[in-house]
Amino acid sequence: MCGAEAGMGIAIPASGQDMMDKPARWEVMQEKRTIYMDNAATTPVHPEVLEAMLPYFTERYGNPSSVYSLARESRKAVEEAREKVAKAIGATPGEIFFTSGGTESDNWAIKGCAWASGKKGGHIITSSIEHHAVLHTCQYLEKNGFSVTYLPVDEYGLVNPADVEAAVTDRTVLISVMYANNEIGTMEPVREIGAVARDHGIPFHTDAVQAVGHVPVDVNQENIDLLSLSGHKFNGPKGVGALYIRKGTRIGTYEHGGGQEKRRRAGTENVPAIVGLGKAVESATAEIPEVSARVSRMRDRLIRGLLSTIPHSRLNGHPEKRLPGNANVSFEFVEGESMLLLLDSIGVSASTGSACTSGSLEPSHVLLAIGLPHEKAHGSLRFTLSGDTTGGDVDYVLLHLPGIVDRLRQMSPLYKPDEKEVKCNVQ
Amino acid sequence: MCGAEAGMGIAIPASGQDMMDKPARWEVMQEKRTIYMDNAATTPVHPEVLEAMLPYFTERYGNPSSVYSLARESRKAVEEAREKVAKAIGATPGEIFFTSGGTESDNWAIKGCAWASGKKGGHIITSSIEHHAVLHTCQYLEKNGFSVTYLPVDEYGLVNPADVEAAVTDRTVLISVMYANNEIGTMEPVREIGAVARDHGIPFHTDAVQAVGHVPVDVNQENIDLLSLSGHKFNGPKGVGALYIRKGTRIGTYEHGGGQEKRRRAGTENVPAIVGLGKAVESATAEIPEVSARVSRMRDRLIRGLLSTIPHSRLNGHPEKRLPGNANVSFEFVEGESMLLLLDSIGVSASTGSACTSGSLEPSHVLLAIGLPHEKAHGSLRFTLSGDTTGGDVDYVLLHLPGIVDRLRQMSPLYKPDEKEVKCNVQ
Amino acid sequence: MYSEKVMDHFSNPRNVGEIDAPSGVGEVGNPVCGDIMKIFLKIEDNRIVDAKFKTFGCGAAIASSSMATELIRGKTLEEAWEVSNKAVAEALEGLPPVKMHCSVLAEEAIHKAINDYRVQQGLEPWEEKNHHTHGHEEESCGV
Amino acid sequence: MYSEKVMDHFSNPRNVGEIDAPSGVGEVGNPVCGDIMKIFLKIEDNRIVDAKFKTFGCGAAIASSSMATELIRGKTLEEAWEVSNKAVAEALEGLPPVKMHCSVLAEEAIHKAINDYRVQQGLEPWEEKNHHTHGHEEESCGV
Ligand SMILES: Cc1ncc(COP(=O)(O)O)c(C=O)c1O
Ligand SMILES: Cc1ncc(COP(=O)(O)O)c(C=O)c1O
Fold it and tell me: Which residues neighbour A194 within 8 Å (Cβ) at sequence distance 6 or greater?
């Protein structure tokens, strides 16, 4: 849809110019609601998940490594959760190792494979739009004698499997490309990249933190050797995740200590959180068909609505190959944080770039990688919907965001109200 | 007290010989109770701690890195917890970094200092009775070009500060000696070791996982530069801990990724667990004076009772310089696991060696380090009491353990019933 | 993250807009870094009788612009020149460390606008003092 | 961790004790490794009419001893010789992998006791088959 249609269909509140003349508290200007559209940053623990966890804090607190009954209950609960995680991604329980979250899983996968390779000066292939948990780990390894290829992506954020193929050398010890991007929602051609890796006998890791529980994932069908996931991205608890390690994959220990997790990941098992992870992944996976269809429809309505009512806006990420819940839109001439704050003042939680980079002044590396100039990257918002999002939530954002953008544009020295939108940003 | 006094004071159930002739289900022979004496392995989350955590699972689930109100609530909760942890050990909040537990804190402290030292072939001094989280990390570093001195301990498990002094070289990059041993409860002369470290300008790390919340700890008075602690050892949640890093200490990042924890420890903050850690450390620390006195008295009664009623038994660890809750006793001619199983069958949870090594066949490295021969090391039990332990719990163990040991001795080919105890194991 | 004062000046910014035929204008910042601040002054008898701003930037940048224009209104040019970034930040009841550069931008925009006026009047521009916090800004946006 | 059968044979071990003037005795294991198993046989007409044991060791070691003595009672020596560690473990409804060596100890103790008897009778001792699980035991206790 074209910017020419701006203002059609949806009522836009009084223009910013007006507001500036008679300042009024923005907050009291509308009935305040609470709308959470930052599910890619984190999610609430669902009640049935919390319920499953609760006994393990107080009554069933035994350390699973001990031999008495109390401990055996904990051991059983941990192993049941392991089966659930395995089932959710088509793995076997023996290939699932619990960690403290997505970050640790990524660190372990990458450092563990790099170190286990035994090759001095080993080479790693990854993409330029990975999460910092992957990128910063790779940069760390670069300082320690490894070389890393950061593959470019196209304007939609897609990695080209042919680029992966071309980057392989006889020193390549790991290929790590994310399953779905946390900022722009683009889903990578994981199966094809995995096939390239397999052809060359190189282990393939994918950061599936944003994918698991939201879209179907199958480690066998998709040629995945290592996979990171994190509980709090699908209504499970924070501080727990897992690393899938295909049987036979060479990987070193990352967390040294006791003999937990078959001596591969030390530390007293976080039993309640592991139970919660199991329950959450089971529920989320079972609901994928229904939820992903419903959420995708809301996402598309949100995207279409924003692009059609707000001139000088564009969608970031792939129009179809994207996570069901992700809408990432750039608005020219305004800066993301100020939009976030105004959204917050009317009860809407969203993010600009990713939660991890907000607070910093660097624009998102992902938006730059898909070719956005810095100033447009600064003006982007990410709305991430979930099964708990309602159509009314989408309406509310569509009703209010145009006014917020306009208000800030009226304040912006970059914005000339008469400016015509030259490019037509069709979704 | 001498073995000669065995059998005095406390009634011992019918001898094992009798039982063997008419087998009977041991379990039904007495009223079953539930007595948890494995608090060094883990502890239940106290109700007020769980209560403090609960809102952060479901209502206040915001990612602290985001900018909206929901996220700011989480940020505030995390910073309040940081203050509580800091206060508990005499540090400032800026020196506290949250981790996924004691194991990660130990890994980070040791690897982080080793790598940050910049010295190729750096040298680390530690003790031979550290937890595996320290020992296995040191062994890993040895495989990666570092050298490690594992200091011996005396018969009570004490490290001699003079040995630390003697081990220092100009390549020493870290001294790591635990605050209190998890198996035998011995409290190390941390302040003196810290003074040696300071004299040489070497950072000093102490694994205080068993000490914090149980005995007073002060990083400044005790010359500590880095300190590991773990929530689940003092009625806080599992899967959360902290590393204290004295301002100015050179340490590398261990977990790479987002900018959390002042860019030093990546990963979405485990808000509910961090809140729980804060609450638990605050309560536990406030109660130290009362609880430690009460628990020490029960511990001493348990130790005296066992040594006096069970011949061929000895106390492991230091008679006075020991954790309030720790009683570790070896019983000759019997094996630990079989005692544990019989204790479990009457509702008593205890451990042999440490939870981490049980299930393996190697006897505890700590018991070997204090000079116990293998066969005696195999026959040791650890009872760890807490403020929740009652005098009745102690009575119950004192009532039943002699019969259990006797029963197993009657089965043991090593035991000659007429054997006189030659050595007098006085406490 | 932000003080109430910052949120007030961000949500209800004072002096937004432009001045027709301004006596002096100062523009600082860079869209690449995510903030641009433009301050317009109307000066009569060496005194700032009106000040307005337009800002592209984060909450702190907008609040700093609002506060800065409030602080200099009615002041002589000499007095306005002395309004430091610290004064702006303090009037806002503090700024988060990573946002201190926003107050620096405000001070610079004022100085630029005053010197723009001075130059138009055929006067020597006043000399900038060095900001210790200035380095910080450049660090933050190293594009 | 342990099956119900293991727990039953551990809690209520059958055939604990010694036999006066036994026909054969077999002792295996090492206190350093945490387990010693001693099996006593009473043999009449090439048949095991009584079997008893004394064991120092973990739950699995005690249960394995109990089960092994049960299995061989009443058997001829040839039949008893064929009672493998696998048979003991299976009769116990399984043992955890790290505890499989306990069943191996039981098999070895039976063999030793039978050969003790054979040697006393002036017969050739039978030859041990090689256990593939045997290496495991030595790995576990490498003292
Ligand atoms: C793609 C991706 N990878 C890794 C992570 C890190 O996960 P965690 O915060 O659980 O450590 C996140 C989220 O923060 C993510 O979105
Ligand atoms: C002395 C000591 N250090 C480290 C640890 C490891 O702590 P965690 O299990 O929380 O990783 C423990 C307990 O398991 C311990 O007792």
Answer: A204, A206, A222, A223, A224, A225
- Spatial distance between the Cα atoms of A342 and C11, rounded to a whole number of angstroms: 7
- Closest chain C residue to B76, measured at CA: C1
Q: Is there a domain that residue D126 lies in? A: no
Strand order from edge to edge, sheet including A313-315: A313-315, A326-331, A380-384
Q: Nearest-CA distance from B45 to chain A in Å?
A: 5
List C-alpha distances in Å: A169 to A165, A201, B367, C96.
9, 12, 50, 46
In the chain, the amino acid numbered A262 is K
Q: Is there a domain that residue D133 lies in?
A: no
Ligand 2 pocket residues where CB is under 6 Å: A 267-268; B 101-103, 106, 131, 133, 178, 182, 207, 209-210, 230, 232, 241
User: Could you read off the pLDDT of B133-176 as tens digits, one per residue?
Assistant: 999 999 999 999 999 999 999 999 999 999 999 999 999 999 99
User: How far is the CA of B253 from the CAs of B274, B343, C100, D102, in angstroms?
Assistant: 20, 44, 26, 45
| Mean pLDDT calculated for residue range B180-187 | 98
Closest by alpha carbon to B227, among B405, B417, B97? B97
Counting from 1 in the atom list of ligand 2, the atom nearest the Cα of B130 is 1
Within a domain: residue C138?
Answer: no
Is residue D27 one of the residues assigned to a domain?
yes
Residue C136's contacts (CB-CB under 8 Å, 6 or more residues apart) are C100, C101, C104
ipTM here: 0.91
Pocket test for ligand 1, best of A129, A131, A136, A212 (most atoms within 8 A of CB): A131
Chains C+D touching (3+ CB pairs under 8 Å): no
**Sheet of D47-56: strands edge to edge?**
D24-30, D35-44, D47-56
Q: What is the pLDDT of residues B229-274, one digit of tens each?
A: 999 999 999 999 999 999 999 999 999 999 899 999 999 999 999 9
The total of structural domains in chain D comes to 1
What whole-number distance in Å separates Cα of residue B321 and Cα of residue A417?
A: 77
In terms of residue numbers, what domain contains D29?
4-121
The two beta strands, B172-176 and A348-349, are: unpaired
Question: Is the pLDDT reported for residue B369 higher than 70?
Answer: yes
pTM score, whole prediction: 0.91
Angle between helices A132-142 and A102-116 (to 10 degrees): 30
The CATH number given to whatever domain includes residue D20 is 3.90.1010.10
